[in-house]
# Entry
Amino acid sequence: MLASVLALLPFSTIDWLVIGLGIAAAYVVFGIAGFGTALVAGPVLIHFMPLSRIIPLLVLLDFIAAFGNWLPARKAVARNELLRLLPCMAVGCTAGVVFLLQLKSAVLLLLMGLFVSSYALYSLAVKARPEQLNAWWALPAGTLGGLFGALFGSGGFLYALYLNARLASSEQARATQSALISCSTVVRLGLFLLAGVYADSALLMLALALLPVMGVGLWAGRRLMRRLSREAFIRLVTWLVLASGLTLIGRYFSL
# Structure
């Protein structure tokens, strides 16, 4: 099997090391926060393959990782929040596919990066916060999360912002977010299958080869997560959201 992978994927030993470290780091973050793989791994993988292969690769790995996060904690899922967000996410995913196929998304990328970065900076600066966000915020959070998930593979931070402002339990927030990301990846997997993306055997072999690295990253992230209080968890998520926003802005200027 190893010979087949090497034949289909002619990376050097150094290439494999860098790719493996990028994937491991991405899934440490995923194990802690439940999102962020495209934002962490994307800048590394872009040196070895086009974005058109990176996003389908990470969708495959994210589906397995999100399912693995959701399954042990499925009883903690906040079903009311899940049902509020799912229709909005579906609308956002559909719009994202339309934008991806027909429109230039660069300006949208910049605007979203500015918005997310500004919100994260505000959240870090302001100590007094409302006890609970209004449920109507599910509309923009779900729609924009689906939109940016389809466009750039990075919409989970919006679900995290919403759920952590709605739910008192970080366990509930993580379980619900994992369920949402699982649903989102199913939609994107279906779209990529219809488009014939997964007919590329080299892409499937690469995903298979990276599964052990993903597993190590998830294990490390979950161990770190158990040591965090709810306040530390929310603050860490906010810093990751800020990094996400800055990455989106950086991606705009690199286009």
Summary: The mean pLDDT is 79. The chain has eleven helices and no strands. The longest helix spans residues 170-194. The CA atoms of residues 69 and 234 lie 18 Å apart.
